[in-house]
Write a structure and sequence with these properties.
The chain is of the alpha/beta class. Helices cover 46% and strands 13% of the residues. Helix 6 links the parallel strand 5 and strand 6. The longest helix has 14 residues. The two termini are 21 Å apart.
Length: 248
């Protein structure tokens, strides 16, 4: 379904959990939509994803408003626990977690492995913030993933950044079949970041919950950076929207 200068696939959560086991997933949310207005590299990657889901209740409402609704919101934080529970008895599926602050992924891995009842998460690594400028660290990261034997790779480096990492280095990770750029999912699984009540998410108020919980970290994103998305959706409804990165 088209949405501004992007798109999402009309899929259900059950379809994704049960059938998507190979390729690169993108759970698209409003912050990424803002990045797609100005980040040419991220924009050019969009059509290389095998699956793009609607990861935002605001986007879900926007698609409905535009007359191109999707069946449901498929967020990364909802998908991931269903994914590892779905594969709990599948010895052919295991996962490496790349991202998070030092020690957080280890906590998440221990909790997930306890829930699954086996060593589903077979390795973790927390990159330094400037790892892109450290070739030796990148080599170390790739070596850790390859030596782990992981078939799936969860990358939590922030929207845009994690997707670029995957496409730059996926050819050097031959055993990995499934790439999951899932942002803050590591923190959710570790319990260091609490999710709001389902009714808050269902009403599209998760952004407000986050703003109240972390005003210093979130105010700029939610009050300054993201609102243009709503104006752009209105422009698209009126036939006035123009893709800022497509000059053709």
């Amino acid at each position: 379904m088209p949405l501004l200068n992007a798109f999402v696939h009309d899929v259900t959560m059950n379809q994704v959990v049960e059938h998507f086991e190979r390729g690169v997933m993108l759970t698209l949310h409003v912050d990424m939509m803002i990045k797609l207005r100005k980040d040419r590299e991220f924009y050019d990657l969009l059509r290389r994803f095998d699956l793009v889901t609607c990861d935002s209740q605001i986007m879900y409402f926007a698609l409905k408003f535009l007359g191109t609704p999707v069946s449901e919101r498929v967020s990364g934080s909802d998908f991931f626990p269903r994914f590892y529970q779905h594969h709990r008895d599948n010895p052919e599926m295991n996962l490496f977690m790349l991202g998070g602050k030092p020690g957080i992924a280890d906590i998440a891995a221990e909790r997930i492995n306890t829930k699954v009842g086996r060593k589903f998460v077979c390795g973790t690594y927390a990159p330094s913030f400037d790892f892109e400028d450290r070739p030796d660290e990148i080599e170390h990261m790739l070596s850790l993933v390859n030596s782990s034997g992981a078939k799936a790779l969860l990358v939590g480096l922030g929207g845009g950044r994690q997707e670029k990492f995957i496409f730059r280095y996926r050819d050097r990770l031959p055993d990995v079949k499934l790439f999951l750029p899932l942002g803050g999912t590591i923190d959710y699984e570790a319990g260091t970041l609490q999710r709001p009540a389902p009714w808050v998410t269902g009403m599209g108020l998760e952004w407000f919950y986050r703003l109240i919980k972390e005003p210093r970290q979130r105010w700029r994103r939610y009050l300054l950076q993201d609102p243009p998305f709503l104006f752009d959706v209105l422009k698209q409804k009126l036939g006035l929207y123009r893709d800022p990165l497509n000059k053709g």
